[in-house]
Amino acid sequence: MRQITLISTLLLPILSFAQESITLDECYTLLNTNYPLLKQAEMNVRKNELDRSVIEKNRLPTMELNAQATYQSDVTHVAIDNPMFSIAPPNKDQYKATLTVNQLIYNGGVINDNLAVTEADLNAQQKQLEVSVYQLKKQVNQLYFSILLLQEKQQLIASNKDLLSKKLAEINSGISNGAVKSSAATVIEVELLKLDQLAIEVDKNKESLLTNLSKLIGKEITSTTELASTAGTLNTNGLTRPELDLFQLQKDKIERSETLFTKKNLPKVFGFAMGGYGNPGLNMLDNTFQPYYMVGMKLNWSIFDWNMSQQQRQSLAITKELIDNQQEVFELNTSMELEQQQIEMDKIAALIESDEKLIALREKLVQSANAELNNGTITPSAYATELNNLFDAQTAQKTHEIQFLLAKANYNTIKGN
């Protein structure tokens, strides 16, 4: 049992360390899962269900209750001279209450077309959310690789501090033996303090960027989290941006709306049943309260609408042309962005190749300066200068490498990876 506990204790730090890492693709996944704007997707679905329910209810019968009491200045009289056949005129005060039930029988498929428009609208809204979140990927790229660059700088600072600490130990040993002046140690200590200051600045900047990235993807990333230095393979496929799908869905909605407007002026057939109670009833010559009913069918047909339907369809056609134009502009701008990113990658690749040659030369100079310092032919300041030059060259190389990864990630994002 003690062995199991001991093994668990030893493995726990290792397992914890293994969990403290994240990749760029994982950040994308978290963004697409946790970003607050995505909550609107569920709201859109609920709203769509309510809208569909309202439209579907047009298939159900409607009921109308009407009540009326009137007094009129005159009524119809039937003039007959024979008193045996006299007809009493209706009362001037009349009353009636009716309940009418209407049932839609035919409307040319308008309800189904309304449902299709509602569904197309939902699809476009959901895709718009996807587009809005996708456009944040560049922001994720910038934060991710900025943190990664600071992560690399931390390692360079630690490596340089280790080298200077060893050199300080050598100098202190020489001071103890009386072979080196005490001022030599001061020079190295100053350089170590400069590195400590730089480390503080890098740590605080990294902490700020980590906070921003954590908020963006909805998951806490600590300073101990290791970011993988990769941007995936370069996307060589065609353009697959969600904006292209959005343009198509917007056009689909317009096409369904065009179909709906085409059918709006078609005849509508209803069945109806009316029951009533009034004085008089259907028999106008009976001056008593009577129940009555009526059943039948009726046709509604808007024969002329002053070309409103045609103008609405023309307006939709113009809207579709606008969407086509927006897509054309989007594809042009995207093509220009891709070309710019490709030029950027080519430029940075050339700089990285130059960095490797420069670092090789700087390393030789540091080795030479170290030997000369040990022989007492140069001052510690001269040695520190060469070491700083190497550090700057290494920092420039890491910066260019991270810039290349950022340009590559942005290229894939622009392409629609």
**CATH fold title:** Outer membrane efflux proteins (OEP)
The stretches of 5 or more residues where confidence is low (pLDDT under 50) are 1-19
Report the helical percentage: 55-70%
CATH superfamily: Outer membrane efflux proteins (OEP)
TL;DR of this structure?
With 417 residues, the protein is of the alpha+beta class. The protein contains 9 helices and 6 strands, in the order αβααββαααβαββαα. A 4-stranded antiparallel sheet has the order 2-3-5-6, with no helix packed on it.
How would you summarize the topology of this molecule?
Elements: H1 2-19, E1 21-22, H2 24-34, H3 39-56, E2 62-71, E3 93-106, H4 110-134, H5 137-176, H6 183-217, E4 226-227, H7 242-263, E5 268-279, E6 290-300, H8 308-375, H9 380-415
Parallel strand pairs: 1-4
Antiparallel strand pairs: 2-3, 3-5, 5-6
Helix pairs in contact: 2-5, 3-4, 4-7, 5-6, 5-9, 7-8, 8-9
Structure write-up:
With 417 residues, the chain is of the alpha+beta class. A 4-stranded antiparallel beta sheet has the order 2-3-5-6, with no helix packed on it. Helix 3 (39-56) packs antiparallel against helix 4 (110-134), helix 5 runs antiparallel to helix 6 (183-217) and helix 8 runs antiparallel to helix 9 (380-415). The protein has one domain (22-67, 91-415): Outer membrane efflux proteins (OEP), CATH 1.20.1600.10. The longest helix is centred in the C-terminal third of the chain and has 68 residues, at 308-375. The protein has 9 helices and 6 strands, in the order H-E-H-H-E-E-H-H-H-E-H-E-E-H-H.
